[in-house]
Amino acid sequence: MNWRTMWSRRAEHWRFRYLPGLVDLLVTASTFQARKRLSGISRRVLVDSSVLGHSITHETAWISTGTKKWGDMDIEGGYAARICVHGPDCDTEVYRNVTYMPGIAHLARKGMLELCTSADEQARQPVGRFRGYGLMDHGLFRDIRMRSVDGFAFSMMGPGGLTRSDPKEEQQIRLAGSDDVLYSALLEKLGPRNNLDAWHIRTAERHDMFCLLTMDFRLKRLVDANAQKEPFRSLRTRVMTPMDFGRLLGLTPIPPAFFSYHDASWFVRPDLHWPENTRKPRSSYRKRGQD
Predict the structure, then answer these.
(1) DSSP string spanning 202-232?
(2) Would you say residue 73 lies in a domain?
(3) Which segment of 111-125, 139-153, 242-256, 265-279 scores lowest on mean pLDDT?
(4) Is residue 105 within 8 Å of residue 141, measured between CB atoms?
């Protein structure tokens, strides 16, 4: 073993052992202004599922090492490793918002923010969207327990005690049966295609949330366009992106690549990222031959 290989292994060992702690100190420092500003506002935030989906900053990838001979056969070699979702030169709207999530997550872990969810935010969502589909995936909100402000949405029972198979349909049935005045007013302005968004805003308002935290940028622009109209003008809760909220609190953005070694126990390749700077689609995890 030459000295370069020895040095590379030693440096990697140090990254696994010391880098997460150093990054945590950096995140703590990035929230200094926020800890002071939080004293003047409500600390309860309703988190939209779009935020949780984008909070997965690292995913598991197969790294090919090329074809090797094994007897008379050619075997494709490689190994699984954690890689970044976003590249170092990424400057998308999604990426800029993700850089404010470390500070928000840190404040929640310290009890300075209460991040909440709701029954309809949890409905019809695959678990992997929020926790990752791969064994080595990493999410910024991975260990934060979010309380549901309005309980849980249980599946409707059909003949023979069987549940309905389509949670989307069940969700639409629940909303169609609502006679909530605020929901109806929001729906009138946002349109029937945005009925779920109207319900989420209504939920945040009814439960005294400071804001609905979302990365649905289309919804954010729609709400901003109607900000001076009722019922939006009278709402106490706000519709904000992580970047909006982070800037309000005075958070310093942190690149998600810094978290490459957090909770890592296998190979890490922080120098690699998905070419499209976005999460791998769920369909890519299906087994071969599966539709």
Answers:
(1) HHHHHTT-SEEE---HHHHHHHHHTTTSTTG
(2) yes
(3) 111-125
(4) yes
Number of folded domains that form the chain: 1
Domain that holds residue 273: 10-279
Map tokens 């901003």 to a residue. Answer: 224
Contacts of 159 (CB under 8 A, 6+ apart): none
Residue 287 lies in a domain: no
Q: Do the Cβ atoms of 69 and 75 come closer than 8 Å?
A: yes
Tell me if 239 sits within 8 A of 201, measured CB to CB.
yes
Give the closest residue to 52 by CA, choosing from 165, 139, 155, 164: 139
Look at the pTM and tell me if it is higher than 0.85.
Answer: yes
pLDDT reported for residue 289: 41
| 142 found inside a domain | yes
Query: Please, which residues have CB within 8 angstroms of residue 147's CB and are 6 or more apart in sequence?
Result: 114, 116, 117
Mean pLDDT of the chain: 88
State how far the Cα of 88 lies from the Cα of 273, in Å rounded to an integer.
9
pLDDT of residue 155 exceeding 60, the answer is no
**Percentage above 90 pLDDT, the chain:** 67
Neighbour tally for 48: CB within 10 Å: 24
Exposed / middle / buried, residue 56 (Cβ in 10 Å: 0-12, 13-18, 19+): buried
Q: Which pLDDT tens digit goes with each residue over 123-142?
A: 556 665 667 788 899 999 99
Q: Is residue 289 part of a domain?
A: no
